[in-house]
UniProtKB/TrEMBL annotation:
Substrate binds at D24, L25, N26, R39, H62, L63, G64, R65, R121, R161. Belongs to the phosphoglycerate kinase family. It is found in: Cytoplasm. Its EC number is 2.7.2.3. GO terms for molecular function: phosphoglycerate kinase activity. InterPro entries: Phosphoglycerate_kinase, Phosphoglycerate_kinase_N, Phosphoglycerate_kinase_sf. The lineage of its organism: Bacteria, Bacillati, Actinomycetota, Actinomycetes, Micrococcales. ATP binds at K211, G307, E338, G364, G365, D366, S367. It comes from Arthrobacter bambusae. This is Phosphoglycerate kinase. Keywords: ATP-binding, Cytoplasm, Glycolysis, Kinase, Nucleotide-binding, Transferase. The gene is pgk. Pathway: Carbohydrate degradation; glycolysis; pyruvate from D-glyceraldehyde 3-phosphate: step 2/5.
Length: 408
C-alpha cells in the first residue's frame, strides 16, 4: 500500500485547516451508556495528534444501522460524550451531519478543537448504491472543510464499506491513512503472509449473511472453521435440523450446503456445535436448558425455544481445536454474551485463546467488547482488532474500498 500517512499531513502543516477524519465510533450501548469504549480509545490518538498540531477536526462516524433517517437510539451523543471525557482537547457534537448545526459549529471552531458530526447513516445517501447520491452527500461533507481541507481515514472497522464518508470523500480531498488503520493493516498483513498452521478461524455473532459471505474465501485458507453464534443455526438447518425460534437466514441455507460440500476438497473442515443452550425467550432471565443441537425443538420450550449460546460439550470441542492451533482468528461472540446466562461459550473461547501458544487475533467491535466485559485483558491476546467485517474481508484478500481509494 502506498497511501500518504497522517505524519505526512502533519508535516505539510494543518494549523487552522479543517481536517475531516472518519473514525469508527460504532460502540455497544446500553441505553445511553457506552458498555465498551475500546473503539473510542483507539480513535483518540489520531484526533489528539491533529488537535495538538492545531487542526480544526471534523469527525464523521456511524453508529448501528439506522434506516437513513435520524433515530435517537442511534445518536452519537453517548459516544461523543465518552470521547469528550477521555480527551484533553475540546470535543463538541453537532445535532446533524451536514445541516445548520454542523455548519454553525464548524465555522466557530478554534485551532485544536474537535467537532463530531451526527451519525452519517442518518442520511440515506451515505450508504446508497448510487454513486451520484453518495457523491452529493460527500460534496456536502467536503464543503464543511472550506478551501484547504484534507481527509484522514482512521476507521478501520469501516474500510470494507463503499460509503460516502469512507470512500467518496477520499476521491474529493487530499487523503491520508490514519495511524489506527495503518497499525491494523500491518498486523493483519503478517497474519496473511506468514500464516502458521494449523490455522483455526472461529466465527460467531449476529451479522449472519455478512459472515457467511466471507467463508467462501476462507475455504482452502483456514484449516478449521469453528461455527458458533447466530450463524450456527443456518448450518444446523442446512444439515436438515429444526432450529425452533433461533436466528435463521433461510435464504442462506443453500449457500451453507454448498460450503459443506466443497469443504473437504478445499482442505477445510467445519466444526459445528453438538449442543446448544436454548432459552424460552430473548431475555437475561429467561428459562434455559442445554439440548442436543440436532434436537432443539425437543427442549421444554418446543418450537418457540431460541438458541442463545453454544453448549458446554461444543465449547470444549472448540477449545481443543484452539489448543492445537498455531494461528487463531476469532470474530463474533459464540452467544448472547451480554446476558450472563448465555456468556459461557464466549468465555470458554476467550479462555482458550488466552491459554494457547498460538498467535491470536480477535476482530470486531462486539467480539472485543465481549472479551473485555468478560474480564479479559487486551494484552492476553496477540492483537485485538477494531474491525469485525473489515478484518475478515482483509483476511479473505478482498479489495477494501476504504483502503484502495487511498492507494496512490
Ligand atoms: N445465538 C445468537 N442469537 C442472537 N444473537 C447472537 C447469538 N450469538 C451471538 N449473538 C449476538 O451477536 C452480537 C455480535 O455480533 P456481530 O456480528 O456484530 O459481532 P462483531 O463482528 O464482533 O461486531 P462488529 O460487527 O460490531 O465488529 C452480540 O451482540 C451477540 O449478542
Ligand atoms: O461494527 C463494525 O464492524 C463496523 O463499525 C462497521 O459496521 P457495519 O457492519 O454496520 O457497516
Amino acid at each position: 500500500m502506498t497511501s500518504h500517512t497522517l505524519n505526512e499531513l502533519i508535516a505539510e502543516g494543518v494549523r487552522g485547516r479543517y481536517i475531516l477524519v472518519r473514525s469508527d465510533l460504532n460502540v455497544p450501548l446500553d441505553g445511553s451508556t457506552v458498555t465498551d469504549d475500546g473503539r473510542i480509545k483507539a480513535s483518540l490518538p489520531v484526533l489528539k495528534k491533529l488537535s495538538d498540531a492545531g487542526a480544526r477536526v471534523l469527525v464523521t462516524a456511524h453508529l448501528g444501522r439506522p434506516k437513513g433517517a435520524p433515530e435517537d437510539k442511534y445518536s452519537l451523543k453517548p459516544a461523543a460524550a465518552r470521547l469528550a471525557e477521555l480527551a484533553d482537547f475540546p470535543v463538541q457534537l453537532a445535532a446533524d451531519t451536514v445541516g445548520d448545526s454542523a455548519k454553525e459549529l464548524s465555522s466557530g471552531l478554534n485551532d485544536g478543537d474537535v467537532l463530531v458530526l451526527e451519525n452519517v447513516r442518518f442520511d440515506a445517501r451515505e450508504t446508497s448504491k448510487d454513486d451520484a447520491q453518495r457523491g452529493a452527500f460527500a460534496d456536502e461533507l467536503v464543503a464543511l472543510t472550506g478551501s484547504n481541507g484534507a481527509f484522514v481515514d482512521d476507521a478501520f472497522g469501516a474500510v470494507h464499506r463503499k460509503h460516502a464518508s469512507v470512500y467518496d470523500v477520499a476521491t474529493r480531498l487530499p487523503s491520508y491513512l490514519g495511524d489506527l488503520v495503518h497499525t491494523e493493516v500491518e498486523v493483519l498483513r503478517k497474519l496473511t503472509t506468514d500464516t502458521q498452521r494449523p490455522y483455526v478461524v472461529v466465527l460467531g455473532g449476529s451479522k449472519v449473511s455478512d459472515k457467511l459471505a466471507v467463508i467462501e474465501n476462507l475455504l482452502g485458507k483456514a484449516d478449521t472453521i469453528l461455527v458458533g453464534g447466530g450463524m450456527l443455526f443456518t448450518f444446523l438447518a442446512a444439515a436438515g435440523h429444526k432450529v425452533a425460534g433461533s436466528l435463521l437466514e433461510e435464504d442462506q441455507i443453500p449457500v451453507v450446503q454448498d460450503y459443506l460440500q466443497r469443504a473437504s476438497a478445499a482442505g477445510t473442515s467445519f466444526v459445528i456445535p453438538t449442543d446448544v443452550v436454548v432459552a424460552s425467550r430473548f431475555a437475561a432471565d429467561a428459562d434455559h436448558e442445554v439440548v442436543r443441537a440436532d434436537a432443539i425443538e425437543d427442549s421444554a420450550f418446543g418450537a418457540s425455544g431460541i438458541g442463545l449460546d453454544i453448549g458446554p460439550e461444543s465449547a470444549s470441542a472448540f477449545a481443543a481445536q484452539i489448543e492445537g492451533a498455531k494461528t487463531v482468528f476469532w470474530n463474533g461472540p459464540m452467544g448472547v454474551f451480554e446476558f450472563e446466562a448465555f456468556s459461557s461459550g464466549t468465555r470458554a473461547i476467550a479462555q482458550a485463546l488466552t491459554d494457547t501458544v498460538a498467535f491470536t487475533v480477535v476482530g470486531g467491535g462486539d467480539s472485543a467488547a465481549a472479551v473485555r466485559t468478560l474480564g479479559f485483558e487486551d494484552a492476553q491476546f496477540g492483537h485485538i482488532s477494531t474491525g469485525g467485517g473489515a478484518s475478515l474481508e482483509y483476511l479473505e484478500g478482498k479489495e477494501l474500498p476504504g483502503l484502495s481509494v487511498l492507494d496512490r
